[in-house]
Structure formats: structure tokens, C-alpha cells
Specification:
- The structure is a single chain.
- By secondary structure, the protein is mainly alpha-helical.
- The protein has a domain at 49-118.
- The chain has helices at 18-23, 28-64, 70-101, 104-115.
Length: 182
């Protein structure tokens, strides 16, 4: 390992940081700062994730009822949105903190990667943005075949389709800049 502050390649995909992070050539200090921001965000959101899972389970029960109550289902969706909002805002705040860790050169490289469909988790990446990527709109993250109106229901998001609501994680704005870590 080189002297402190020397730029190094980040861990590979097997260690959770992905090619986008490695391409930014982060210093060891930057990598540590990014990991800490993500850990702080994860800890902050654990309780909210539990409440969100319960709300999604309640929604699932409403959809599986013999007679569906439109008002109750609407309220359940409103509750999910209410729970998601602070989580989304926290993700955006964490993404802003991560961006602040990057040098001007690294931010420009990130913009270029995102424009070309790469990025840490950006458009065309695993957690893609609207319209692209495996987890973005049009993918498993909530809009395509697995998303609202899709064949399998909400799939990874919280929408409805032929098979009912989805129960898993969903793409949120700000995730495109979140490095992946196990």
C-alpha cells in the first residue's frame, strides 16, 4: 500500500465497491469517508426500513383481501410514501456528502461515467436511474416488468401489477452516487 493520500484503485466488485468507485481512483482516506457516510445512513435508516416493511405487508394484506377497500389501499400507499420521504431525503443528503468528498476532477469523472451509462450505481448500472439500469425505471427497481402495472406487480418496488404488490427495495433518487458495500 502506498503513502497516505496516494490515489489507489478501490476494492473490486467482489468487495462491494464496484467498477464505478474504482474508476474514480479514490484515496484511502476518501474510501474511508465514503464507507462512514454509508454506514451512518444505514444505521439511521434501519428503524425506518422496519416500519416500511410493516407498511408494505399491511398493503399486501389489503390487496389479498376478498373484498378490496380502495380507500384503505390508498391510505396504505400514502403511509408508504410518508415513510419513504425522510429515507429519500437522507439518501440525497448522504449523496451530497459523498460528492463533497470527491475532488473537482473526480466529480467530473463521475459526471462523465453517469453520462455514458456507468457511474457508481447510476444510469445503466445496477441501481440505474429513471429509464435505465437493472434497478431503475424499466428494470427490477419498480417500473418495468416487475414494477407498477408490470406483469409481476411491484416486484422490487411498491407498485401493483397482475401479481400484486412488490415487497422489496426500490430505487430512490440519490442512490446513483451511493457506492456499493457488502
Amino acid at each position: 500500500m502506498g503513502p497516505e493520500g496516494q490515489r489507489q484503485m478501490g476494492p473490486g466488485m467482489g468487495q462491494g465497491q464496484g467498477m464505478g468507485m474504482a474508476a474514480l481512483n479514490l484515496t484511502a482516506e476518501q474510501q474511508q469517508q465514503m464507507r462512514q457516510i454509508r454506514r451512518d445512513l444505514q444505521r439511521e435508516q434501519w428503524e425506518a426500513q422496519g416500519k416500511l416493511m410493516e407498511a408494505r405487508e399491511d398493503l399486501r394484506d389489503l390487496w389479498l383481501a376478498e373484498e378490496r377497500d380502495p380507500a384503505a389501499i390508498g391510505e396504505a400507499y400514502a403511509r408508504i410514501a410518508e415513510l419513504q420521504r425522510p429515507m429519500i431525503e437522507a439518501r440525497v443528503e448522504a449523496a451530497n456528502k459523498m460528492r463533497a468528498v470527491l475532488s473537482d476532477e473526480q466529480r467530473e469523472a463521475l459526471r462523465e461515467m453517469r453520462a455514458s451509462g456507468m457511474g457508481m450505481m447510476g444510469s445503466g448500472g445496477m441501481m440505474g436511474g429513471p429509464g435505465m439500469g437493472m434497478m431503475g425505471q424499466g428494470g427490477m427497481g419498480g417500473m418495468g416488468m416487475m414494477g407498477p402495472g408490470g406483469m409481476m406487480g411491484g416486484g422490487m418496488g411498491s407498485g401493483m401489477g397482475m401479481m400484486g404488490p412488490g415487497m422489496g427495495p426500490m430505487w430512490m433518487p440519490g442512490m446513483e452516487d451511493m457506492p456499493v458495500e457488502p
